[in-house]
Every structure is written in structure tokens, then in C-alpha cells.
Design goal:
Structural class: mainly alpha
Oligomer: single chain
Helix content: 55-70%
Number of domains: 1
Radius of gyration: 14 Å
Distance between the termini: 45 Å
Shape: globular
């Protein structure tokens, strides 16, 4: 994991956004465990809803994709699958 306090000059991603992406990747890979909401508050100083809102916004940010391409790609696929399922449910 990189130092989240540093700006990433190669991809123009804010250090707070980089820290958020790194935490999500660590969570998904099982490198951190426990109460995710508490971890979000303790590590990032934001609420869980704000974390998830920002994470969703970052899925469409080219700088986020440059910083964490595998994570962003995986999360985009999940988001797209959920959207497709909701659309299919509405058509029934």
C-alpha cells in the first residue's frame, strides 16, 4: 500500500481518493477485516454513506482508473451487472 498522504502526480488523484481506493482494495483482498464502517471512520474520517458515494463517483474518474485499474474495472463490472438486473426487474 502506498502512502496515502502523498499526491499521485502521474494520475492527478487526490490523496484522500487514493486512500479510499487503497482501503477498498485492501478490504476486498482480505488484507483488512473487522467492522468496515468503523474502519472507514477511523482511517478516512468520513461516514460509510459518503464513502460509498465517493467510491461510486470514482468509478467514472479516469484518474482513479489509472491509479487502481483492476479495482475500478472489477467495481464497474459489479455496478453494471446490478444496473442490468434492476432494469430487467422493471421490465417484468
Amino acid at each position: 500500500m502506498t502512502d496515502a498522504s502523498q499526491q499521485h502526480p502521474d494520475d492527478d488523484l487526490a490523496s484522500s481518493d487514493a486512500a479510499l481506493l487503497e482501503m477498498e482494495e485492501d478490504w476486498q483482498l482480505g488484507r483488512i477485516t473487522g467492522d468496515k464502517e468503523a474502519l472507514i471512520r477511523d482511517r478516512l474520517g468520513i461516514s460509510s454513506p459518503r464513502y460509498h458515494q465517493r467510491l461510486n463517483e470514482l468509478l467514472d474518474d479516469p484518474a482513479a482508473a489509472a491509479h487502481s485499474p483492476a479495482l475500478i474495472g472489477r467495481l464497474r463490472r459489479v455496478r453494471d451487472q446490478r444496473r442490468a438486473a434492476r432494469s430487467a426487474d422493471r421490465l417484468e
